[in-house]
Amino acid sequence: MSTLAELEASIEAGQPIELYVFSIQGTVYRRTSAEGIVTFNGTDYSPLPIKRTAWQESRENKSNTITITLPTDDEISANFLGIQPSALMDVQVLRIQAQAVPATASLIMFEGYVASAAFKDQICEFKCVPHNEVFFRTMPRFNYQGLCNHVLYDSRCGVLAGSYKYSGKVLGVTNEVDISIQALPTTGTPFVGGYLQIPDGSEQRLIISQTGTTVKILYPFKQSISGTTVDVYQGCDHTAETCAQKFGNILNYGGFPFVPSVNPFNKQQLTKE
Q1: Is residue 149 part of a domain?
Q2: What is the domain extent for residue 170?
Q3: Domain total for the chain?
Q4: CA atoms of 268 and 74, how far apart (whole Å)
Q5: What is the pLDDT of residue 273?
Q6: CA nearest to 205, candidates 167, 224, 174, 233
Q7: Which of 74, 164, 219, 254 could in theory staple to 234 by disulfide, Cβ–Cβ 3.0 to 4.6 A?
Q8: DSSP string of 112-136?
Q9: Within the chain, which residues score under 50 in pLDDT?
Q10: Residue 271 resides in a domain
Q11: What is the pLDDT, as a whole number, of residue 211?
Q12: Which backbone phi and psi does 9 adopt, to 5 degrees?
């Protein structure tokens, strides 16, 4: 019997098998490109005509992006049909050897998430990006600007979401995005910029406007929410005034409200009005 490393190096003895793990909001899908069910570490991986592109080791982030192709009628692809999921789908690609000792040995070929999905004929293509792509983002994240840089209710903001949550019954849905909610508070349209979430937390949508007890969300929910009870969280326009008056949180304000709009030396405009 041979080790995983020995079988990987062997041209004749190696029998590589790739395993794919997709997970989104607590739901895990396990697939394999093998012809039959593969049991690895006590877990079954279902066979599927699935494949991926190769990549090259590089310092360039784009070189480590892969494309995974699978049928459109698989339940994994169904997550992206019509309305895109509100959460990221994580992806892990493993490679094992059928005769390796120990049988629990594996190579992690890729770890990342689905950045986009494209459908053509009966095929779905997932463009997958490694988790370390965050290190290639433009830094610093904070800008010298009047508006707050924090994400509402995150750890830097410090405001407790539960203190600004309203739970109410959905009385009706119009045009898929206009949601009427029973007895929703209306003073000052407090929910603009907030979000609406179904009770299990699996889906949430940004609220872009409020008219009375009706809120308009950015795009529809995948499932029907008519007659259900939803959680609605108040929003923020990221100004210092709102931070102080609505949330009493000015000490944690993440912006620079006194940035001058006019250059004091030449009187030219510094920022757009």
Answers
A1: yes
A2: 138-273
A3: 2
A4: 59
A5: 45
A6: 233
A7: 164
A8: EEEEEEEEETTEEEEEEEEGGGGGG
A9: 61-62, 273
A10: yes
A11: 96
A12: -85, -15
